[in-house]
Structures are given as C-alpha cells and as structure tokens.
C-alpha cells in the first residue's frame, strides 16, 4: 500500500466540487492548487493573497522580489510581520536593486531610498552621514540583521559597516520615530541591513548537495554539505581597486526535538557564510585617499523546536578626512577599527521566545593635522547588550513583550570625565593611556499588541525607559500604527509614535579649536505622525505619505555669530513633508521575462522645517541643512542577450548654507547650497556562473556639494567581474 501511494502522481485542483465524498478524494495525496476563482480572491486580504501567490516564472528577479515582500518579516514591530502585512510603510531595497545599481558602497545604496539623506565628504562612501526625513545622522538606529550596532561615540561613524554589497540580501528603511520598538536613537527611524542566510537547496544537482529523504531511502545522503562560492574584483578611476570573496555552506541532518522523544527522523540544518573584502583608492577629491577591509561571518543552527543565529564582523579603514570637523583644517586624517558580535536564538511554535546578546567595539584615532600629534585624540567605545522578547499568537491577535539592558561606555584622550592614574587603560599600539572615561546604562521594557484581521491591522505598544545618565524616573514612549484595506489593491496607513535620542559622547564632551561640547545636553524627544496609502497590483507598486515630526530639545552644533565656534545646543524644531513613489514592472505588465523594458521607479520627497524658539543662530551645522526636494528615478532595461543596463537619476535641493573658506581661512560669508543632479549607469553581462560589469557615477561630471567647502567627485568609472560556483 505504501509503495502504491508513493507512485501516485500529483493531483491538480482545477475546480470546486460540492459532492459529499469530495474531501476523501484528497486523502494521502499531494494536491497542487491550479485555479482560484475571482470570487475567492476578492474575499481574501490583499497582503495574504499576494503572500500565497506562486510564481509561474520562478527564475524571474521581479518574482523573487515579490516573494521577498510577501513572506519576509521586516522592521517596525516587535512581533515579526511581512512587508505586505505591516501596519507601517517600510521601504525595501531588494536584492535585485542592489545587484543592478551603480552603488559602490552600502551608503550609495541608501541614496536610492527617497526619504534618506546621504551626505558624503568624498567618494566611495568613506565619510558619510545618513539621516531620515530631515533629521540628523545621530537620530537613526542602524541594525544588522535586527541587532542594534549604533555607536554612542558619534553618528559620523555609524556607516562603518563590516559587510560588503555581495553579503546583503535587502535593506529595510523605517521612516519616523520607532523608539517603542528599538529604544534610544530610533528618534527619526531605523535602517536594517539584512545579510544573505545560506539555506539548503534540495533541487540542486551534483556532488556536495543534499536531497530530501523519503521513506526508507538512505538518510546518510542528507548529511552531505552543500557549498557555494562567489568572488569578485574591480578597479577604475583614481587608482581604485579591490576585491571580495564569499563562501557559504549548508548541511541537513536529523536533529532532536526539545520536547524529547528522539529525533524521529526529523530534518534540521545548520550552515554559515564567511566573506572578506579589501579596497583602496587615491581618492577622488583632495585628501580623500583610503584603504579599507572587512570580514564577516554569519552562521545558523535550525532544529525542529528552535533556531540559533550568530554573526561576527570586523572592519578597518584609514582615510584622509578632508575637513571632517572644520574647513579650517582640511588635512585631517582618521583610522577606525570596528568589531561586532551577536548571538541569538528563537523557539518555534505558538509562543516564540527570542533571547539575544551582543557586543560592539569601535576604536578610533583622529588627527586634526595629518601626520602630526597636533589635536590628535584616541577613543575606544564599547556597547554590551542583552535582550529577550517573546510573542504569542492567540484569538485576539499577536502580543509581544521585551526587555533590554544596554551598557555604553567610552575610554578616550578627550571625551569623558578625567580618570585617576590607576583607572587608565593603555591605547593599543601607542605609548600613551586613555585619560578620560564615561559610561551609562540604558534599561528598557516594551509591550506591544498586534490585531490582525482580514482587512485591518493595528499595532499598539509602549516602551518604558530608564537611563543612568538622567534622572531616576521611567520615561514612556507610546505608539500606535493602523492599516486598513478598503478595497482590492489599496491599503491605508496612519500612525503616531513618540521617539527619543540620547546625546552622544561627542555632543557632551568634544572640544577643539572650532568646537565646544556641552555636558548639560538634554535628550531629544519627538512626536511623529504619519498618514499614507499604498496601491499594489501584479505589475505596479505606488505609495504616498505625509509626515509631521514635532521635535523638542533637538541637538545640533551651531554658531551664534560669524566669529564664534560651534556649540552643541538644544532647540525646538519641526520637520514636515510629503513623499510619493511608484514602481512599474514591465516584465509583469507585458507577461514576458525577456521584455526590453524591465523596471521603472520614481520617488519624490518635499520637506519643510519650522523652528519654535527665537534664539538667534548664525549657522546650523546639521539639523537645519535638510533636503527641501529629492527626486530619484531608476530605469532597468535589457540591451541585447544577457546585457542589461540600469540608469539612476538623482536631483536634490538642500536648504541651509555653509561658511566659505579660502586657503583654510573663514571669509565669514554664508553661501547657500545649490541644487544639483547626478546620473549613474551600470552595464551588466550576466551568465549562470559569472558576471561582467562596468559602471559610471556622475556621468555629467557635475561638481556639487553635500557639505560645505568639500566638492564631490566628478565622473568615476569602475569595472569588474564576479564568478559564482
């Protein structure tokens, strides 16, 4: 009888039959659903319907992106929800967009997000400040696979990622306050970088792969590991060259259950990936040469009742820091080394528990005048954290609770409170000691409930926070996100969230000939309101959003007169704006995978600021230099055979002004930022086991400024190759 059942073919469901015996016809049989009626689809919530779609062209990149949005949980809530089910709009830069873009770094990728402002002091993403919806670079939380890797030292160094573009599966951008989920620093939003997780592929043929075991087949076949490798090299303008390599493996074997009773033949898996990269360049502008390298490991262990995920990253770079803190000293230099380690687990079932521990370290050496000890300082910041959360699915929805303890500290030659001789730590590879130190402990407790109905989603939560840097009382940060599906393809959103951000150690203590910190700084707070709508079909995505962020005790570095130094100060500032974007997938519209036109996306943001205090300020260094207008348009198309092209046009108009310096001396004259546009192109020849590409950024060779007195690179051309096996 078992042999008979095994030989039976797969039945295809094609129509409804109302006979009383119909249900018994499918017993002991694998059934493939071939047809769903229009009436049935109309009664299903749009996110769920799209999540259940099965691609008829599984190799199409557009279909892969659709499945990614439909099935993968994204940032925004404590309990994991898919992008199509979430109660907030989360922008996702997909793997297809990453591969086709002319981005040279993670920071360049973020320029594709219309709500993100990326300000560079040079090319290749070496010195970059990242902000969201008119905020500052210190007002966002940076996550790596959901782990907070933000530094309490300064947000200037937040973009030192230990991963390369080939490691990244997708990037999620959550705009607006998210403190009730991610705690301190999620004042203006969060950016979550998700790396590729190697997973077993039972359809892969050839040696070294495993396959699904059935019946009495030899289970030893399942233990054979499956490997994949890819490597690339590139070079081009300004004596730039680099390379990277990545190896991943998975294996599948019988794994035990936590509930006992032996493995019972149940199959689990474990695997991991290891990558490394190096790049150097003479630099595209004055004093912007650099060398950088990184290594990254991610591993997992997946059993029947639980899973374990760990990651470890290392990055280092040394670079000419042209006018990093002041145009009065254009010949600055910086060295950074970063370490990241995290270990997490998750139980499976109706109640899921997720414990997690992590450690981040950032070692920094800054030279005010390159090659000298004048104004030189050393810093070492450490973050230790432990977090546990749990969620349960029940009749009223999904409820989640969590708690986190995060210890932040810094040893420095310039930041912090003076140390006595016995408490000093030696600076690595230097004949001197850290003379200052500061630390703070942040404890948070949050609870959230998600209501998940066929046409309605609500996420309601609150975070209670205590920090040893401030008073001893708990501070509460509530939030509510609502989404409703009034009709097929449409989804409406509304949300309110309160956010906060602690001052960095740089805000509190930094002192130089041009800057003066303030130990009396208060924590920033904001009330963030958003409303929006999305429209999705098989071939088009569109969204529109309006936001209002009311900021209190906003932190910025300001000058009160033309001959003043920059002071860290608090003031009240509101950001508001509208955003619209749309993407058209021509492969789905025309029903042909080899369509000449493949994808077109356009996004636009308009912002305005309103200051609510009357203290006269001569110059704001960051907070009031926001993008009034940002337009991003991307077109992907096929040229011939395996050759394709991706064009990106970006137009920006920045408010604010900068002090004009001539020969490293201030003229005292303010110059407004001028609007500019850049055009990028990437050409790709793709085959099964290799890829050839050439890309050009700023093809019009336009000179522009992201930050005052630092002209951005003209045209940069790179070419490279990648192999996969």
Can you lay out the helices and strands and say which pair or pack?
Layout: H1 2-7, E1 11-13, E2 31-33, H2 38-42, H3 46-52, H4 61-71, E3 73-74, E4 81-82, E5 90-93, H5 95-100, H6 106-110, E6 116-120, E7 128-132, E8 140-144, E9 147-148, E10 168-175, H7 179-182, E11 189-195, E12 226-236, E13 240-254, E14 267-281, E15 290-302, E16 306-321, E17 332-347, E18 351-367, E19 377-394, E20 397-412, E21 417-418, E22 425-426, E23 433-434, E24 436-453, E25 456-467, E26 475-484, E27 490-501, H8 505-509, E28 511-512, E29 515-516, E30 524-536, E31 540-559, E32 566-585, H9 586-590, E33 597-611, E34 619-620, E35 627-640, E36 643-654, E37 657-662, E38 665-672, E39 676-686, E40 690-697, E41 716-724
Parallel strand pairs: 1-2, 8-11, 29-32
Antiparallel strand pairs: 3-4, 5-10, 6-7, 8-9, 10-11, 12-13, 12-41, 13-14, 14-15, 15-16, 16-17, 17-18, 18-19, 19-20, 20-24, 21-24, 22-23, 24-25, 25-26, 26-27, 27-30, 28-29, 30-31, 31-32, 31-34, 32-33, 33-35, 35-36, 36-39, 37-38, 39-40, 40-41
Helix pairs in contact: 3-4
Brief synopsis:
The protein has 725 residues and is mainly beta.
Number of helices: 9
Portion of residues within helices: under 10%
How many strands, which pairing sense, and closed or not: the largest β-sheet? 22 strands, antiparallel, barrel
Poorly predicted runs: 1-10, 12-16, 18-62, 202-222, 258-265
3D shape: globular
Average pLDDT over all residues: 85
Strand content: over 45%
Count of β-strands: 41
- Structural class comes to mainly beta
Radius of gyration: 27 Å
Taking the alpha carbons of the first and last residues, their distance comes to 42 Å
